[in-house]
Structure formats: C-alpha cells, structure tokens
User: Which sequence fits this backbone?
C-alpha cells in the first residue's frame, strides 16, 4: 500500500490507462449505530429509494446526498481552502454589497464555486464588469463560449472546476444549452439496508402558555392586539407563532445498518478534454492540464471529508474507518490503495498546477469581480418582496 499519492504517480495514471480514482467509506450517524437520519426529500416530499445488492441480499437503500449536492460540498471545501490561502483557483465573483440596501435580506458575494451552473450560471450572465459590460458580452465569455472538449483551454483558464464537476451551457443560454462537459467527480451518500419511518410526531411547548382560545388581531406594524372573539379577522395565537404547536409529518427519517459514501474521479472523462497550443495538439499540455484537474478533484474530496459529513438538520454522519482511496489501473494490474490528508491533497494540487504552468497552460490568477445588473437587482428585490408578502421564508 502506497502511503500517499504523489504527483509522478498521479501524472502516470492520467497519461496511462488507469480508469479512475475511487473511495468507498462506511459512515454511521453521530448519535450512534442505528440512529435516525433524515434524507433529502424530492417530488411530493418523497425520499429517493431503490433496491441494491448487499452481498447476497437485496436491501432497501435511501439516497442521503445526491451527486449534485456532493459536488456542492466539494466546491465549498475548495472555496474555504482558497479563503485560507492554501490553494489558488480562478474565481468569478458577483458582489452585491452596493445593492444590498435595496433588499430585505442581504446577499453574500457569490462566486463561480457557489452558483449552481458554475461558469454557465445566469447570475454570472446577468452581471456586469466594472466598465459596465455584461459578462455574457465580454471577451471572457467570447473565449469560453467557443470552447468544447476539443479545446477546453478557455474553461481551464476561467473556471477549471467546471471541467471537474461538469457544466452544460453557453454565455448567452446557460443551464442546458451549449457545450457539455461531463462530470469527472461523482460522489453520493446512501443509507444501506434502511428502514423508513413513514410518520413523525412532535410537540413544541410554549413557555408563556398562550391559549388558543384568546383571539388576536395582527397589526400593520407587525405587532398584534388581543381582541374579542367576534372581531373580524381575528386569529389564534398559534398563527402568530405563540402557543403550543403540534405537528405531524409523513417524513419520519430512516434507520439503516450503515451509510456509504462513494466517490469516483473518472480519469476517462478527463482524457476527453484537449488543450491545444496555437491550434495544434500538444500532448504534454493535455496531460499536465488533465493531471491538474484530477488533483482538484482529489483535493476537493479530501477537504470535503475533513469538513465533516453534515448534510442537513438531523443528518450528520461520521466515518467509522479511515478514508482510503484506490487507483484503478488498466486490466491485469493490481489496484493501488493509498491514504491522503487534506494537507497532502493541497500539496498535490499546488504541485500539479506548477507542473501545468511549466507545460505552458495556466489559469487566471486575479479574481474577476462583477456587479449585478439593474435587471438582476430588480429581480432579487421584487422576489424578496413577493415572498415576504406571501409569508414565505426569505434568504434561507
């Protein structure tokens, strides 16, 4: 077993015939084995379930964290590493600070590691450069709008993580139209041999014991008056969040024998990407860029694990064994197993980036800062006002 993965070994795997890097880790709820966890819900409040083989048995499994959500966790781990100064990756940032005073709830600075469609996201498209040029009409967009798997250099320069986590879009028509770059980083968390609880009951006790029989009338300033029983528009205190609240839900969580996190970095997907020099194929550049992208994926997966597997309320898990990785070589060669820490992953990424620069391919060093356009600002403001008027949560 190799103690860790170094750059020469990773580079040889990428340029050779290795299929993928893989990590399969068993997890348990932090409250202990058999503890209840709450999966994400999908259409009509349902859990995503399927039958899988567990040895010789067929067992019920429930998706705890999807491929898309796992990618978001990995991107946030990379963002934190950038903020801590451990690594340097290109970032495109939309700064809402000048328009937040127009909103009910402030928006943070959103980067290409935050927005759902990465470089092709509409938030970036509908923002402007300091000189007022729309990002979708800028020279940056013109370059990456022509990119495809045969020449992905512009994406590598502006947003290499889009080549790792996948992207489908164009500067003008993001989110489903335009060049498609498949995911090279695929991860998910599944509850194995799960028992689904179909009902959940609860009771929140009000410490002031507000009675449901005391009518109140809400005022325009957000306060309320205690009124008579026949007052028009009177409500129960519980409708203003006073009083004991009983709730019942059909989503009662699951209990499972264990959870399993599977992460794969597809080297085959990365080999589809090309980075020509002056219109001519350059295999040295190709291999160096692909190796740097593989290092991004490994670093992201390791750092995400070290941040903890806290998926949502009442769904926090912990590994029950050290996380190991496997390098899956060509057929006939033995699988290589290794461990890697966050610090080692950072070192691997930085070394791979330096090697790529030595091969003649690099990425944007300075953060590209955008501001929201007037129409994007209007959309945010009006949406927040509408949600507030309809009683929906704003900014959560």
Assistant:
């Amino acid at each position: 077993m190799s103690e860790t993965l170094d750059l020469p070994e990773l580079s040889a795997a990428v340029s050779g015939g290795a299929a993928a890097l893989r990590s399969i880790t068993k997890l348990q709820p932090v409250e202990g084995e058999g503890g209840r966890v709450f999966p994400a819900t999908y259409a009509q409040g349902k859990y995503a379930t399927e039958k899988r083989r567990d040895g010789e048995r067929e067992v019920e499994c429930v998706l705890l964290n999807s491929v898309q959500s796992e990618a978001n966790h990995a991107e946030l781990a990379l963002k934190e590493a950038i903020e801590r100064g451990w690594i340097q990756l290109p970032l495109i940032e939309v700064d809402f600070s000048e328009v937040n005073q127009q909103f009910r709830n402030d928006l943070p600075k959103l980067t290409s590691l935050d927005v759902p469609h990465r470089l092709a996201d509409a938030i970036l498209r509908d923002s402007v450069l300091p000189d007022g040029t729309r990002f979708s009409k800028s020279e940056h967009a013109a370059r990456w709008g022509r990119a495809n798997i045969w020449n992905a250099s512009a994406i590598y320069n502006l947003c290499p993580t889009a080549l790792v986590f996948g992207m489908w879009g164009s500067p003008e028509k993001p989110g489903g139209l335009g060049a498609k770059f498949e995911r090279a980083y695929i991860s998910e968390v599944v509850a194995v041999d799960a028992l689904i609880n179909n009902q959940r009951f609860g009771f929140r006790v009000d410490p002031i014991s507000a009675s449901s029989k005391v009518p109140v009338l809400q005022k325009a300033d957000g306060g309320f008056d205690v009124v008579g029983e026949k007052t028009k528009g009177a409500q129960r205190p519980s409708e203003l969040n006073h009083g004991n609240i009983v709730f019942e839900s059909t989503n009662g969580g699951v209990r499972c024998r264990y959870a399993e996190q599977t992460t794969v970095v597809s080297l085959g997907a990365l080999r589809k990407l090309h980075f020509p020099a002056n219109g001519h194929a350059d295999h040295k550049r190709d291999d160096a860029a692909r190796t740097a992208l593989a290092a991004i994926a490994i670093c992201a997966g390791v750092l995400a694990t070290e941040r903890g597997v806290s998926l949502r309320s009442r769904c926090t898990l912990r590994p029950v064994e050290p996380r190991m990785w496997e390098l899956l070589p060509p057929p006939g060669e033995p699988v290589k197993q290794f461990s890697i820490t966050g610090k080692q992953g950072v070192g691997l990424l930085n070394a791979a980036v330096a090697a790529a620069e030595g091969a003649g391919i690099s990425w944007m060093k300075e953060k590209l800062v955008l501001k929201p356009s007037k129409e994007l600002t209007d959309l945010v403001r009006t949406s927040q006002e509408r949600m507030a008027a309809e009683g929906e949560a704003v900014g959560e």
Q: What stands out?
A: The chain has a mean pLDDT of 90. The longest strand covers residues 254-266.
